[in-house]
User: Fold this.
Amino acid sequence: MKQIVLHQWVFSPFCTKVRKMLDYKGIEYTTKNYNGFLALQTRKLSETGKLPVLEIDGQLIQDSRVIARHLDKHFPEKPLIPADLAMASKAEILQDWADESIFFYEIFFRVKYSKALFKVADLLGEGRPFYEKYLLGPAVGYQLGKAVKQQGIARYSKAMVEERFLHLMAQVDCQLQADPWLAGSDPSVADFALAGQLIEVVRTGHLNSQLQQYSHLWSWLNKMQDMPSSEVVS
Ligand SMILES: N[C@@H](CCC(=O)N[C@@H](CS)C(=O)NCC(=O)O)C(=O)O
Assistant:
């Protein structure tokens, strides 16, 4: 059997996306967390230093999209990219939207709500000497703040960003009223990419009561969250 290790941060939407894809396919894996100062070691895993990185029998694969394609090639059951070409293109376009646009809403909410930032600092400090979270928490907040400023979303007010985000979620709710999954009759990269982001927005917490009103979206997200895990915990 292949030895599969997911190098991750539990609060990274892209790492959640990969965990869920592995779970969906029923592929057994272990995880390695890079909390606290261990984050410095991610530079050795890939040229960007970003996570997730999936290690399969010693081979390191970076980027959740490349990982999805690799998984489909080597574990073809339950494809993440639909076989139907029209559905495959829809899935890939929605994946890109979730990864490159919704991601910035998710970061915005984290940065603008101090409770959300404290939650991330707590998760970042798990299993590490207590002072690491106090040193790294503000650094992460600063980096994320810089990212949303550069991308542009941080120039808008909280109220405006929330309204835009909820408007988009209403559109997704309409889609999910018509079809159970975002692209085709089964979960695809579109579902995993969006769920990865939204699970973190839900962790942030301040929009949960509004999100719950989108009943199709909310029950779809619950299905994604409740997917049985195939992680092997030693
Ligand atoms: N396109 C990448 C994005 C990965 C990504 O941005 N990961 C973030 C964590 S959410 C990261 O590693 N940030 C640390 C850094 O940029 O140094 C993917 O899909 O895997």
